[in-house]
Amino acid sequence: EVQLLQSGAELKKPGESLKISCKGSGYSFTTYWIGWVRQVPGKGLEWMGIIYPGDSDTRYRPSFQGQVTISADKSINTAYLQWSSLKASDTAMYYCARRDSGKWLVDYWGQGTLVTVSS
Amino acid sequence: QSALTQPRSVSGSPGQSVTISCTGTSSDVGYYDFVSWYQHHPGKAPKLMIYDVNKRPSGVPDRFSGSKSGNTASLTISGLQPEDEADYYCCSFAGSYTWVFGGGTKVTVL
After folding, report:
1. Coil, helix or strand for A75?
2. Which of A45, A50, A107 sits opposite B101 (nearest CB)?
3. Which single residue of A106, B26, B77, B79 could bond B30 by disulfide (Cβ 3.0 to 4.6 Å)?
4. Which H or E run contains B26?
5. Measured between CA atoms, how close is B48 to chain A, in angstroms?
6. Which residues lie below 8 Å from residue A63, measured CB to CB, with a gap of 6+?
7. Model confidence over A77-112: pLDDT tens digits?
8. Is A108 on the interface with B (CB under 8 A)?
């Protein structure tokens, strides 16, 4: 069974750094792209970017380029989303999601990680 | 403002049909036949219900169906069941390893 298990909720202060994780299981982690999706409270879903864990090829949506870093450690089947300096506007639920192999389709999702940035 | 436009809410009684629209542009929904729909119960992982406009993954009931005309895609739930109450999001591939989503529609079973 394909599963994407995300790390737990975070409460951080503005200016702090953060790295959240998404661990894949039940499939060959290195051969499927993993994307990240943001959901600001009360708003819809926004695509942030995607990484291919096999070679760490990463593609960012332009509006998120330079704002976050997407990475992966294929030795432990885990993808990451990180911030170097959080802002209050980063408060959101963040989902990881898998791109189906060979298709332009996002098929499996993690359960989400709530990030709250507040002083 | 979401890239794709969905109604905020729809409702129906058990057994009725409801349809959720999803309007994009000629660069996403209108260009690619890679529209998908997800069911989301808060606190859980979104679940794929329809992909490639009108295909159902294994295990998804056939009361869920999808279609597309021009820049607008639609999800129809026929024979509404209480367990269908959830948020539904549409999604379209938009090129260059980018996907766009709708703002979500809350389906209420009366």
Report:
1. helix
2. A45
3. B26
4. none
5. 6
6. none
7. 999 999 999 999 999 999 999 999 888 999 999 999
8. yes
